Amino acid sequence: MTFTFRTVDPLKDGELLHCWVTHPKAAFWMMRDAKLEDVERAYMEIAADEHHHALLGLRDGEPVFLMEKYDPAHRELVGLYEPRPGDVGMHFLTPATDTPEHGFTKAVITAVMARLFEDPAVERVVVEPDVRNKAVHALNEAVGFVAEREIDKPEKRALLSFCTREQFRKAVTA
What we know:
This protein has 174 residues and is α+β, with helices and mostly antiparallel strands. It is built from 5 helices and 7 strands. 30% of the residues lie in helices and 27% in strands. Strands 1-2-3-4-5-7-6 form a 7-stranded mixed β-sheet, sandwiched between helices. Helix 3 links the parallel strand 4 and strand 5. The longest helix is centred in the middle third of the chain and has 14 residues. The two termini are 18 Å apart.
């Protein structure tokens, strides 16, 4: 599967993102009750933030997933771990579908990781999914993440995990 990326346009993409993040299967995104304006506002804040970026993953020009990258020294994980130079934080969301495609989500996380590691300054990717999100833990492990410890964030108990460039390369070429 081949994906391309483009920056989220909060107003143009707002309805699509609202549909994705409020779906019951996106419960771990914590926006179930968000109104369209809430989603647009959240992504306008990201668009204006030099330490946080939102991208849509496209297949054949159509949006098929959401990716966010952030600087964990300034967002999400401030004070919860000791960031290293070259760390980048990541979130991704594949929308709910009535016609699941085998291997799609693994292809998405692999593409997201490859995109992050295209930047030579990125040494390690950091994630902090909800401890209850077993499906994403398995996906993270499949692309080379190693869980370090559980941490308490204001909105959830999270599993702090890391993946270096080398761990990713080994995992996807194994």
